[in-house]
Amino acid sequence: MRRAALGPEQWEVSAQGLGCMRMGLARKPTDFADAADVIGHALDRGVTFLDTAQMYGDGYNESLVGRAVRGRRDEVQLCTKFGVIVHPDGTWTARGDAAFVRQSCDANLERLDVDVIDLYYLHRRDPRVPIEESVGAMADLVAAGKVRYLGLSEVTGDELRAAHAVHPITAVQSQWSLFSRGIEKVVPVCAELGVGVVPFAPRGTMKRVAVDGTGAQLPTERAAFSAGLGSLARKYDATPGQIALAWLHQRARVWNVTVVPIPGTTRADHLDENIAALDIVLDDDDLSRLDGPPASA
């Protein structure tokens, strides 16, 4: 497994990570064994950059991940997020005041059963609280030895600049794929500041791409793009998802920024498929083809 250097600190992590959200959102008897199997396989393959969050199953996912890495903690770069409160009706609000930052971190550490969190993200910015206050409280956690590096999720370029002025930001986590490129408005700021980019949902929408969530037909160019993606997959003897990951890995060269995708899976064979995408190098013509019009804003 190749390594990558995230952030101004040049923190070394695996070049591709593992999103753990789908391993447990509701309590099921098989959750822990299944999660432990996949995470153990990931570590054996060198995928050591693991991502979870308080929001996933109201902390249950963190507990699963923490148990799964017990005994192998020194191999793992453990990342989690705070700042989203899910209500009983399924709606959620963001909270980022200093008191909540401190309270959340202690709860994250307890659920993960670790002494320190490697990368701690503000999951969503609280619009009622200056981002400088949230990040200032997070910086206090670094000073206290509870957190090593700081991250932000789904922020604007201006918010990233303001946060980075308070304390160095190591990574920004946002959705980025062939089908979702809105973060490209923020990537130039990441490159300027030396902040890494950690894309979630990096494979994008690979199934039923001709129909959107309402059942309406997608624009003709989206369907044509999807057909072209399938053609490229055949050319490289790969799956469309692997081509999507390969494209995203090569964004690092295009944008001069470190990119560490975190595809999620609950199966070891899918993990192996994602790892294999690291060996696919798309030529310039094919990269140009993929830089077409299918992305959402």
UniProtKB/TrEMBL annotation:
PANTHER family cross-referenced by the UniProt entry: AFLATOXIN B1 ALDEHYDE REDUCTASE, ALDO-KETO REDUCTASE YAKC [NADP(+)]
Source species taxonomy: Bacteria, Bacillati, Actinomycetota, Actinomycetes, Mycobacteriales
Name of this protein: Aldo/keto reductase
Pfam families named in the record: Aldo_ket_red
Domain (NADP-dependent oxidoreductase): residue spans on this chain: 17-291
Classification via SUPFAM superfamilies: NAD(P)-linked oxidoreductase
Keyword Oxidoreductase on entry: yes
Keywords from the named record: Oxidoreductase
Oxidoreductase as UniProt keyword: yes
